[in-house]
């Protein structure tokens, strides 16, 4: 989307959330528990700024249950590191904070503001690390709160919190979780019953950084055919070397029965591949299904529009309007090139676990973006 789209975010917060959703503020939030507190987590990621509102119910002596009340995001592409994307990210960051504070009346000490590890990694690769501190300082100035804490999360802590917030306790020690973000990929598994330490898996490649690397190679030929060629050169070159090495040193192949993917790439792939499973937060997939999906994205991208996909859903008990809305949301967030980068990177990682003698069970997690935020909130509460 063009950058001018974001410049009005402060003046019209309702524009972000689209109309009727914001009519009744916190009183309209559908809470699940009788005794609970509402928290907001706002994260500046590589591709955009996300806000999740989470209801936390405290159970005596146990970890709290949580319910996702709502989540939203604004695409700002911070890791392009241009003045326009910086301004877009600052507007979104401060706009969402003001929305949580003033519109939803969430106290400031229950609003958590963080910078994702993907931004940190991308800034280091591009030698743009000072941009992060500049964004934080500008954000504090914009919201008039110089003491506001804005943590820059490292990959290991983000991976650990994601695992705790996403993976069910029954599968905690048999699942390798991989979060494909915009600027990097991180994840890991718990090699023992000690959840304070995770065996980290980390790549400097994410959906947007992979797409950007391919785009830089286009040399004025912006056709999809040329993009596909250059994307494969990126994926088969440095990205493949890094993926192979990272998987091998992680030891995850021998230690994990399940490989779960979260992040925007997982959400988008699951939604377009199985739109009828709109209510399923976790979708099992095979390597072959994702491979065919990638080929269809390249050869027949128009078949993944909301209008086209809805025509193939025969179950009349499903809410086709809701499904079409979700499909259209994916297509607004990911254009054809971004979707090819997302599924291409996903395939490269899956390939390392799709062995001849042992095939892992793959899962795509659609609501993973709130997992590490919920765990981060929980950790902050009990600290």
What top-tier CATH class of the largest domain fits best? Alpha Beta
Sum up the overall morphology in one term. Answer: globular
Biggest sheet: strand arrangement: 8-7-6-9-11-10
**Helices and strands, in N-to-C order?**
HEEEHEHHEHEEEHHHHEHEHHHHEH
Low-confidence stretches: 1-27
- Mean pLDDT across the residues is 85
**Number of self-contained structural domains:** 2
Alpha-carbon Rg, integer: 20 Å
**Range of strand content:** 15-25%
CATH homologous superfamily caption of the largest domain: Exopolyphosphatase. Domain 2
Distance between the termini: 40 Å
Helix content range: 40-55%
CATH fold name of the largest domain? Nucleotidyltransferase, domain 5
**Number of beta-strand segments:** 11
What class would the helix/strand composition place it in? alpha/beta
Q: What CATH architecture label of the largest domain applies?
A: 2-Layer Sandwich
Largest sheet: 6 strands, mixed
Number of contiguous helices = 15
What key phrases describe this protein's structure?
383 residues; alpha/beta; Nucleotidyltransferase, domain 5; 2 domains; 6-stranded mixed β-sheet; 11 strands; 45% helix
